[in-house]
Specification:
The protein has 11 helices and no strands. The chain is an all-alpha fold and 235 residues long.
Length: 235
Amino acid sequence: MRAGRPQVKQDRAVRTRRAILEAAAVVFEERGYDAARLTEIVRLAKVTKGALYFHFASKEHLAQAVIEAQVSLYEPEVPPELKAQEFVDVGMVFSHRLRHDVLIRGSARLTLEHNGRELDRAAPYRGWIDVHTALLAQAKERGELLPHVEPEEPARLVVGAFAGLNVMAQTLGLDLDREVSALYASVMPGLVVPAVADRLDLAPGRGARVLHAPEAPCRCAAPPGPEAREPVAAG
């Protein structure tokens, strides 16, 4: 029994940290960085202020952790056969989670807003560019890309276009999942060889199908319900 106690404490610490991150994401999404209060985050997470400060030294450190969480959330259990499809899936899964994962939404708001100048908002952009570049580099090694394609440039363009589509979709009330699907449908034929292009799943709902089941419907157009305001587990 004694040998198991450190693991129990470690598991509890992981759950507590996650609860704090999700509660912080709710508050940051609703109020923005400047108006967010640690007392509200503590209340929503149902932890003590001491527990919060054990994991995060300040509101700045907590907000930075929320910002950086977005890049580390998606790792496919069973990677697709094509690296070009995995490249697409990164964006489609992120689009799905923007609708259904409070941590992603809070992270996105902190990344895009201009308050809290001490925060490093470049970190997620650099992280996403690195992820996309690496996938395209692997796709090129496998002969999936057209000969002239160099991975870093389209990686930057897709990350930048996705960020712009997210802002536009919020402003105009558009379905981000469908906009991102249209982005890949426009971009991928110029990056991959025709035989690969014919096999890619670029349709809306791809993110849900990757995360849940091949037959999962596209639920991304549905407005977030009241449960979106409570901390929820990723995915």
